[in-house]
Amino acid sequence: MNNTITTSKIQCLDLKGQHRQIKQEVFDLFEYVYDNNAFSGGPFVEKFEKEFSAFCNTSFAVAVNNGTSALHLALLTLGIGPNDEVLVPANTFIATAWAVSYTGARPVFVDCTADTWQIDASLLESKITSHTKAIIGVHLYGQPFDVDAVKTICTRHNLFLLEDAAQAHGALYKNESVGAFGEMACFSFYPGKNLGACGEGGGITTNNENHYSHLLSLRNHGSKFRYYHDELGFNMRMGGMEAASLIVKLKYLDDWNCKRRQIAKRYQSEIKNPRIRLQYQPDWSSSVYHLFVITTPDRDQLINYLNNNNIFPGLHYPVPCHLQKAYQHLNYQHGDCPNAEYLSQHCLSLPIYAELQENDVDHVIQILNNY
Ligand SMILES: Cc1ncc(COP(=O)(O)O)c(C=O)c1O
Questions:
Q1: Which residues does UniProt assign to the signal peptide (predicted)?
Q2: 13, 65, 68: which to mutate for ligand 1, most atoms within 8 A of CB?
């Protein structure tokens, strides 16, 4: 570690470096989309779908307009609707639960474990009722959840498994890429994700051909042939410009994930402050560190101290899903998901992205160790 003093602000995420690096390549492809009027769906979207399914090692990928739509359409494809219940983690971004609510089903929140901060498989069976149809496991912060443990329960109770892989493009569970452990896996290509579009985007991967063709119809007004509508559908197509940017970025994703892993490794081995707890990484998990989340007893104090030292951490997430105002009607109480509640009050996210400079990582580690 060197003792360089960093004077510029170190943000949790800064995309400027990434976009400078690939600007010409992306703009060249944008021009191509423009000249071909391929703005909605079309050849660039199809090319991205092929390349993304190959990346995830799945038979099919369907690109949509964002990750929330991906989850919504995946649930509809499974026939989930009113009177159904779907188990989801309390510790996730709210969109995991929104998708369940959009179908008319009810999200049932499950606490996370105290160390991995992922869905606690040992609690699932206590939440299953005769209405339960599916479990959505979230590979949160880029770290795979315990897929086998959750899958065992799905098999025992005849439930569908969906992966929410919005934060985990390229993450490995027992050396296999996320994206094919359940019926379908849903990704977000929001700009700040490990693979983020220049715009909004989402996608679903699957090995099931029936799901694949149903998803193609649902995202396109319930239509397989133009102006013939077989079911209530949506306009959730991906745009050509977004697909073009993703085609370029996908080529760099392994390299960017590798850089995130190197930064995470440094944080894990060099942060020695006992007031800072890191996320436990089981040996079967290979995270892509979308976020590097820590906990600390007095978060406000640590945030002030970091800010005074030009470090601006993120906060993922300050309110767990079951205590959000929008879900008040479900009558969850403080204490229902204690680990998720603890995290919401004590977590913060350290700067991590591929272009983060070595001396900035030095600075973050040094400042945290001096705290
Ligand atoms: C875990 C999780 N699920 C779902 C989503 C929804 O994705 P999007 O923002 O693309 O709709 C996100 C992204 O924000 C997410 O982090």
A1: none
A2: 68
The third-level CATH classification (topology) of the domain covering 10-14+253-370 is Aspartate Aminotransferase, domain 1 (3.90.1150)
Which helix (H) or strand (E) is 65 found in, with range?
A: none
Q: Is 66 in the pocket of ligand 1 (CB under 6 A)?
A: yes
- Residue of the nearest CA to atom 8 in ligand 1? 67
Class of the CATH-defined domain 18-247? alpha beta
Cβ-defined contacts of 223-230 (< 8 Å, 24+): none
- Give the number of other CB atoms < 10 A from CB of residue 370: 9
Residue 95 Cβ < 6 Å to ligand 1: yes
pLDDT in tens, 217-256: 999 999 999 999 999 999 999 999 999 999 999 999 999 9
